[in-house]
Write a structure and sequence with these properties.
Distance between the termini: 22 Å
Number of helices: 5
Shape: elongated
Protein name: DUF2269 family protein
Number of strands: 0
Largest sheet: none
Keywords: Membrane, Transmembrane, Transmembrane helix
Number of domains: 1
Structural class: mainly alpha
Strand content: under 5%
Order of helices and strands: HHHHH
Length: 166
């Protein structure tokens, strides 16, 4: 049973968290390109394509964020089977996972939505100057989200203080 739970946990992490990290990392570029259409409508073709891509990337982030709840659920079930729920490395991983989820749900996804809304508004002279700092902030938040998950992966592999550590 432990092997099945661990396999499902790792598979869920790869599919859901991997998808979110890639899509969220690509989002600012396409959303910013969608906002680059000038007031006269120049570059509307690629701006429309970029807006469509940014919309899909946002949907990927949102959908896989919801599905990603399976990762800590399966991780806790696996930890219970292994009897390591009170180990420091697992508690730290859970705290970092919660921090990543809060960051994604309360900062990254709403900021993506705001930037998509800005891209959907008719062109205005101030749109580009508003979009650039928004895209930069999303990129920074996404980088932090990705870093949190990288630390969780290291903790899962190294398991400091664990008696099963390699």
């Amino acid at each position: 049973m432990t092997e099945l739970l661990l396999s499902l946990h790792v598979l869920a992490a790869i599919v859901t968290v991997g998808s979110v990290t890639v899509a969220a990392s690509m989002f600012p570029r396409y959303a910013l390109k969608a906002c680059a259409v000038d007031a006269a409508g120049a570059d509307a073709g690629s701006g429309g394509r970029s807006a469509a891509i940014a919309t899909v990337l946002h949907r990927v982030c949102s959908g896989y964020a919801v599905a990603g709840v399976a990762v800590p659920v399966l991780g806790i079930a696996t930890g219970a089977q292994l009897g390591v729920l009170t180990d420091t490395w697992l508690i730290a991983s859970l705290i970092l996972t919660l921090a990543a989820a809060v960051l994604l749900g309360l900062a990254v996804l709403p900021a993506q939505r705001r930037l998509l809304d800005l891209a959907a508004t008719p062109s205005s002279p101030g749109r580009w100057t508003s979009a650039r700092p928004m895209a930069a902030r999303i990129a920074m938040l996404t980088g932090i989200f990705n870093l949190l998950w990288a630390i969780v992966v290291v903790l899962m592999i190294v398991r400091p203080g664990s008696t099963t550590s390699a």
